[in-house]
Each structure stands twice: as structure tokens, then as C-alpha cells.
Design a protein that fits this description.
Distance between the termini: 53 Å
Number of strands: 0
Largest sheet: none
Radius of gyration: 18 Å
Mean pLDDT: 89
Helix content: over 70%
Number of domains: 2
Strand content: under 5%
CATH class of the largest domain: Mainly Alpha
Low-confidence stretches: none
Length: 120
């Protein structure tokens, strides 16, 4: 594998592992859902093996995310960050999502006030 392919594999594997853990699944549970063995999932997550495009589409579907979200890192824009937060809170209960939205709103107001105070 070339250096770039290795870096892509490592980044892809990290995002697969993060999403799997966010769903509360073990490697064995993900493997079972994809009809592969646990070693395959381990290799994907370590980046030592890259899934085929067809397999990547199955992995993304199983993890309830888009293929592009597994392949791309957030650019740091507000839109990308909002999409990341959306992915994190989607599996939560509605009450928990409301709580998080309230907390984000409160922190946002606090940080805006602090930023405004610094400009004075």
C-alpha cells in the first residue's frame, strides 16, 4: 500500500471504529451484521485492509452513515461540524437530543458573550 493509501485506510478505519462504538457494537456484532469474520472488521479498523467499494457501501449502510462521511474528514466549516453533531445525536432518544440542543444553545450564548467581551 502506498503512503497515501495507508493514510486513507487508517482514517477510514478510525471512522468505522468510532461509528461502531457510537452505536454500542462490538467488532463481532458488526461482523455478524455484515456476514464477515471479526478479523476482517479488525483489519478494516486498523487500516491494514481496505474494503472494496461494494463492501464499503454495505459497511456504511450498516453503520447508518453515508460512504462519503466515512471517506472524508470534516473541513472545519460550520456545516460539516453540524453534520458531525447530527450523526452523533441521531441514535439518541428524543429527550436526550433535546437536552443536548439546550446545552449547545446555552454554551453558544456564553461563548458569544465572551467573544464580544474580548473585542471591547
Amino acid at each position: 500500500m502506498t503512503g497515501r493509501a495507508h493514510a486513507l485506510g487508517a482514517a477510514l478505519g478510525k471512522r468505522i471504529a468510532e461509528r461502531r462504538k457510537a452505536l454500542g457494537w462490538t467488532q463481532a456484532e458488526l461482523a455478524e451484521r455484515l456476514s464477515v469474520d471479526t478479523i476482517t472488521i479488525s483489519r478494516f479498523e486498523r487500516g491494514s485492509n481496505l474494503p472494496s467499494l461494494a463492501r464499503l457501501e454495505l459497511v456504511a449502510g450498516c453503520l447508518q452513515v453515508s460512504v462519503s462521511s466515512l471517506l472524508s474528514e470534516s473541513s472545519g466549516t460550520a456545516d460539516d461540524q453540524a453534520l458531525m453533531i447530527k450523526r452523533w445525536i441521531e441514535p439518541l432518544a428524543e429527550e436526550d437530543r433535546r437536552f443536548l440542543v439546550e446545552m449547545v444553545c446555552e454554551w453558544s450564548e456564553f461563548l458569544k458573550a465572551r467573544q464580544f467581551a474580548r473585542k471591547r
